Amino acid sequence: MALASIAGATFPLLAACTQDASSTDGTESAAPSASSEQPTAEPAINGVDANQYASSDPTGDAYGFVTPSGKWLCAIIPAMKLAGCTSHPTAGPLGVPGTPQIASPDGGAPAEANLIAVEAGKEPNFQNWNQALFPGNANVLPYDTTLAIDGFSCNVQFSGVSCREDATDKGFTVATSGYKFEFTPLPMSIPSAGPPPIAPTAAPLPQQAHGSNQCGPVTYPETGKPATVVIVKGTLRCDEAHTMLTKYFTGRDKSEPEYSFDGWECRLAGDPESAQIGYTINCTDDNGNTVVAQP
Predict the structure, then answer these.
(1) 3-state secondary structure (DSSP) of residue 180
(2) Confidence check: pLDDT of 142 > 80
(3) Is residue 175 scored above 80 in pLDDT?
(4) 20 to 30 A Cα–Cα from 192, which one of 59, 120, 210, 217?
(5) Which pTM does this prediction carry?
(6) Sheet hosting strand 170-175, strand order edge to edge
(7) What phi and psi, each to the nearest 5 degrees, are found at residue 57?
């Protein structure tokens, strides 16, 4: 596999980050020696069955998932001792503020990195790949759950997706608003206002146009800002999802985090900044449909 990488240099981080990643001047750190003191890996919080995320390609040793927002495809590849994330569904440039231009794997001109990754014994880094990160279609990893296999862990939260090497706790967190070379663990207890557990579902969903489970955006009435609408599970059409969210916006009590109507139950979740940009909305109905609207 041809690829090029740049190790964890200092770049702009997520808004919640308080310090920069340490600079390695473009070099990769050596694997820790047997005598090195390493942090003890903690058990995965809300772990899922890794076999449900294994590649169906007999030639590919990989465990992959798509985030509920549909924005990220991530994979743990044991043979390469690597965990990484790329944009979905294009697998093109990450499109995250601060992503560097690095060498192309085919020797061409430098281009914006299309992968953020952590490898065993190395600093988290950006890379450019010229082949698919995960063969075939990946399942959706529900919010507030962890995929852990072969010494690596990845989780999905409303604030972004995060992966690490368990033995060293080195990793990264990435979202559309930015990134940091630091793993973000799940909280020990998930707030009750968060979304209910979601079983793995194939992504992208076949009933959506162009093989995508993303629909057109909606606008938060309180903030005037757009939210990406994703059909995480079920057979709902995009127009039906938009109609449901319109009823939600016009009918709910804005002081309550939960609102039920027409067989739907919707919940709000997010961090303190969500008051300015919009809360994530997770809606489920009695027919097994799940729709998420996320800033």
Answers:
(1) strand
(2) yes
(3) yes
(4) 217
(5) 0.57
(6) 145-149, 152-157, 160-165, 170-175, 178-180
(7) -80, 115
